[in-house]
Design brief:
The complex is a heterodimer of chains A (about 325) and B (about 325).
Chain A (H helix, E strand, L loop, with lengths): L5 E10 L5 E10 L4 E5 L6 H9 L6 E10 L2 E2 L5 H7 L4 E4 L3 H4 L6 H10 L8 H11 L5 H5 L8 H13 L5 E5 L7 H18 L2 E6 L2 H4 L5 E6 L2 E7 H6 L4 H8 L40 H5 L5 E2 L3 E3 L9
Parallel strand pairs in A: 3-8, 3-9, 6-7, 7-8
Antiparallel strand pairs in A: 1-2, 1-4, 4-5, 9-10, 10-12, 11-12
Chain B lengths: L1 E13 L4 E14 L3 E5 L6 H8 L7 E6 L2 E2 L5 H8 L2 E4 L13 H12 L7 H11 L16 H13 L5 E5 L7 H18 L2 E6 L2 H7 L2 E6 L2 E7 H6 L4 H9 L51 E4 L2 E3 L5
Parallel strand pairs in B: 3-8, 3-9, 6-7, 7-8
Antiparallel strand pairs in B: 1-2, 1-4, 4-5, 9-10, 10-12, 11-12
Helix pairs in contact in B: 3-4, 3-5, 4-5
Classes of the chains: A alpha/beta (about 325), B alpha/beta (about 325).
C-alpha cells in the first residue's frame, strides 16, 4: 500500500490562555489522490482541524499535541518559512465565503498573479497561465475578468475564481471549507461538478469540510464524522451511508427527510444540543444525547477503533444490518 | 377565509443608479385555510419579498393581497395591527430577530400586550403556556437570547409569533440557519403545532427536501414569477417545468452514494439580473427546451391536469 500524503495523528487543538480543548486527539490519513470528507455541526472542530494543517489557526488557538505529517514534514513543528512555501503550492484552500477571502480592492488578474509571484518568479508566461486557469474553471471573457474586481462577479463566479486560484500551482492537497454553503443549489451543483472533474483530472487529494451529508455522498471516497471535537466515526462513504455504526451518524442520517418516502413519516430527531468540546472530559461526548448510552459511556471515553474502511468510537455501536 | 394574492408586482427603485429591481413580476396564488403552501426558489426569486408583502412589511407596486376580504397595505396602522393578530412571520435568523437585551419572557409578553389578548395579570401564565407549547422549559423565561442555542431561539421566535394567536404563519427559511441535528426537531414541532392549533402555513425555503416534507401544495418561483404549481406529489414526482426538473436534480441526495455522475451539471449559467429581466420567458436563457419564440413570448400559467399549473410553452 502506498504511503499516505497526509497523516494526522493524535491532534489536539486548544485555546492558549485558560486552556480549553477544542479538538481532541484527532487521527486520520489521506492517501495520494484520495478525497476525504469531514462532516460535523458547528463547533465540532472540523474547520479548526483543517486550518491547523495550513498553520492558519486563529489567534489565541494553537495545536496542543499530536502531529500533522505531510510529505515527511511535521507541519506542527515546521518553521513559518516552510509553511509559507507549502501554502498555496503543495496545499491550498478554498474558503466558505469568497467575498471575504478575495481582496475587494485588487483586480482579479493581479490577485492570481500574486499567487505565482509568492512562490516563483513571474515571467512572460505567467499571465497566460492565470488566464488558462480561469478558463479551466469556466469563467467567461477571461481577459475582461482579469481586469475586474471581486464585487463585479456573482457568488458562484467568485467561488470559481477561488478554485482557479487554489489550483493555479497544482497542489497535491486541496482543502475546501464548505465552499458551496453560501450558494444556490443549482450553482452548488455546478461547483461540485467542477471540483470533482478537476480532482480526477489532476489526481489531486482533497479534504472537503461540510455540514451537509448530501453534498459529500457522491464527491468523496471516505468520510470522517466529527462531534464535539472528536472523530466519532470514519469509513468509506458506502459504509457510512448504508451501515452507520455510531448512534450520532445514525441519528444524523435518519433526521434527513427522505426523497422517496411517500408517507412523509415523522423525522427522527436527536434530542438536546451538542456539548462544548472542553466540557466533555473523559467521557463519550455524545452520551447525554444518545439512546444507547450506559454507565460505561460516562465512565471513560471510547477510542476510535477499526480499519481504514470502517472505524467507530463507541461502546455500543449500532451493529451490522 | 383565505389569502388571495392577485397579480402582485414589487419593484424597488435604486435612486443612486436610477435602476429598478423587479422583485415580483405578477404573482397570483390562493392559500386556503388549513393548507400549507411551500414556496421554493433560489436567491433573488422573490420568495422573501412575497413573504414580507403577505404580512404587510412591503406594499405591492401593483396587484393586491387580500386576507379574509381585507386588502393588506400599510395605509391604516390599525388595520395592519388587526392583520398581525391573524398573520405572523417567523424569520430565518433567530439570532438577529430577538432583542439581545431582552429576557425571552419579555420578548413574548410584549407581543401579547400589543394585541391585548390576555389580562395583564395573566400574561406570565400565558408565556408559560406558550413556552411549553413549543417544547421549551418554562424556567428558560429569564434567560437572554445569547444563553440559548439556535434551536431554542427559533422556538422562542415561534412562541412569540403564536402569542398573537394567528391563523396564518409565514415561515421564511425557519430551519436553514440551524444545525442539521436540530432541524428535524423544529420541523416536527411545526407539524405538531399545525395539527394542534389548526394553523395555515406559508413555508418558504430553498431546500426542496424540507418543502417536500411539509407542504400540501408547492409553488416554484423563478425571477419573481411562479413557474410551476401543484400538489407536493405532482411537483416532486411529476415535475414538468424545466426549471423545476433542474432544481430537483440538483437536490443533494444521500440515497445515492459514490456515483460521480450524480454531480453532472444540471443547469448552465446563473439567474439573470432582476434589473434587466430577459424578454419573453425569463428562464429562456438557461433552458434546455428553449426555442426562438421563448425569447419573445412570456408564457402564462396554464392548467395541465387537475390544478397542476405550469408556465412553459414547450411542455
Amino acid at each position: 500500500m502506498s504511503k499516505p500524503l497526509l497523516s494526522v495523528s493524535g491532534l489536539g487543538i486548544s485555546t492558549v490562555q485558560d486552556p480549553r480543548s477544542l479538538v481532541n486527539s484527532v487521527s486520520f490519513e489521506i492517501m495520494p489522490g484520495e478525497a476525504v470528507g469531514v462532516v460535523g455541526e458547528s463547533g465540532s472542530g472540523k474547520t479548526l482541524t483543517a486550518l491547523s494543517i495550513l498553520g492558519l489557526l486563529p489567534r489565541g488557538v494553537a495545536v496542543a499535541g499530536g502531529s500533522i505529517v505531510f510529505n515527511d514534514i511535521d507541519l506542527t513543528k515546521a518553521n513559518p518559512e516552510t509553511m509559507r512555501n507549502l501554502r498555496g503550492s503543495d496545499i491550498s484552500m478554498v474558503y466558505q465565503d469568497p467575498m471575504t477571502a478575495l481582496n475587494p480592492v485588487m483586480k482579479l488578474g493581479r490577485q492570481l498573479l500574486e499567487v505565482i509571484e509568492s512562490h516563483e518568479k513571474l515571467d512572460y508566461n505567467s499571465v497566460a497561465r492565470v488566464e488558462a486557469a480561469l478558463r479551466e474553471v469556466g469563467i467567461p471573457q477571461v481577459e475582461r475578468a482579469m481586469e475586474s474586481y471581486p464585487h463585479e462577479f456573482s457568488g458562484g463566479m467568485r467561488q470559481r475564481v477561488m478554485i482557479a486560484m487554489a489550483l493555479l500551482l497544482s497542489p497535491k492537497l486541496l482543502i475546501a471549507d464548505e465552499p458551496t454553503t453560501a450558494l444556490d443549489v443549482t450553482i452548488q451543483q455546478q461547483i461540485l461538478a467542477l471540483v470533482s472533474e478537476q480532482r480526477r483530472k489532476r489526481d489531486m487529494s482533497m479534504l472537503w469540510i461540510t455540514h451537509d451529508l448530501g453534498v459529500v455522498a457522491n464527491l468523496v471516497d471516505r468520510l470522517i464524522v466529527m462531534y464535539a471535537g472528536n472523530i466519532v466515526e470514519a469509513g468509506t462513504v458506502q459504509e457510512i451511508f448504508t451501515n452507520p455504526q455510531h448512534p450520532y451518524t445514525h441519528g444524523l442520517l435518519s433526521s434527513l427527510p427522505s426523497r422517496t418516502d411517500k408517507s412523509r413519516k415523522r423525522l427522527t430527531s436527536i434530542p438536546g444540543v451538542p456539548q462544548k468540546p472542553w466540557l466533555v472530559g473523559n467521557t463519550c461526548a455524545f452520551a447525554p444525547r444518545c439512546f444507547k448510552a450506559t454507565g460505561e459511556c460516562t465512565a471513560s471515553a471510547p477510542k476510535l477503533v477499526g480499519t481504514l474502511e470502517k472505524s467507530v468510537a463507541c461502546f455500543h455501536p449500532m451493529g451490522d444490518k | 377565509m383565505s389569502l388571495d394574492i392577485i397579480d402582485v408586482e414589487k419593484r424597488y427603485l435604486n435612486r443612486a443608479s436610477g435602476t429598478t429591481i423587479n422583485a415580483l413580476n405578477g404573482v397570483s396564488i390562493k392559500v386556503e385555510l388549513g393548507q400549507t403552501l411551500g414556496i421554493v426558489g433560489e436567491s433573488g426569486c422573490g420568495k422573501s419579498t412575497l413573504a414580507r408583502a403577505v404580512v404587510g412589511l412591503e406594499v405591492p407596486s401593483a396587484g393586491s393581497i387580500t386576507w379574509d376580504g381585507a386588502v393588506i397595505d400599510n395605509k391604516a396602522k390599525d388595520r395592519l395591527k388587526s392583520h398581525h393578530s391573524q398573520v405572523q412571520l417567523v424569520f430565518q435568523d433567530p439570532y438577529s430577530s430577538l432583542n439581545p437585551r431582552q429576557q425571552i419572557e419579555n420578548s413574548i409578553a410584549e407581543a401579547i400586550e400589543v394585541h391585548g389578548l390576555v389580562a395583564k395579570d395573566k400574561i406570565t401564565d400565558r408565556v408559560t403556556e406558550l413556552l411549553v407549547m413549543v417544547g421549551l422549559d418554562p424556567d428558560l423565561r429569564n434567560r437572554y437570547p445569547h444563553q440559548l442555542s439556535g434551536g431554542q431561539r427559533q422556538r422562542v421566535c415561534i412562541a412569540r409569533a403564536l402569542s398573537a394567536e394567528p391563523k396564518l404563519l409565514v415561515l421564511d427559511e425557519p430551519v436553514s440557519a440551524l444545525d442539521v441535528s436540530v432541524r428535524a426537531e423544529v420541523m416536527n414541532l411545526l407539524i405538531d403545532l399545525r395539527k394542534n392549533l389548526g394553523l395555515t402555513y406559508i413555508f418558504i425555503s430553498h431546500d426542496l427536501a424540507m418543502i417536500r416534507y411539509i407542504s400540501d401544495v408547492i409553488a416554484v418561483m423563478y425571477l419573481g414569477k411562479i413557474v410551476e404549481f401543484g400538489t407536493w406529489e405532482e411537483i416532486i414526482e411529476n415535475p414538468v417545468h424545466p426549471y423545476t426538473k433542474a432544481l430537483i436534480a440538483a437536490m443533494p441526495d444521500h440515497s445515492i452514494i459514490g456515483d460521480p455522475a450524480m454531480l453532472a451539471r444540471t443547469l448552465e449559467g446563473e439567474v439573470p439580473d432582476p434589473v434587466n429581466l430577459p424578454s419573453g420567458c425569463s428562464f429562456h436563457s438557461r433552458c434546455v427546451l428553449a426555442v426562438p419564440s421563448c425569447s419573445t413570448n412570456a408564457p402564462t400559467l396554464r392548467d395541465i391536469s387537475n390544478g397542476h399549473l405550469v408556465a412553459c410553452s414547450e411542455v
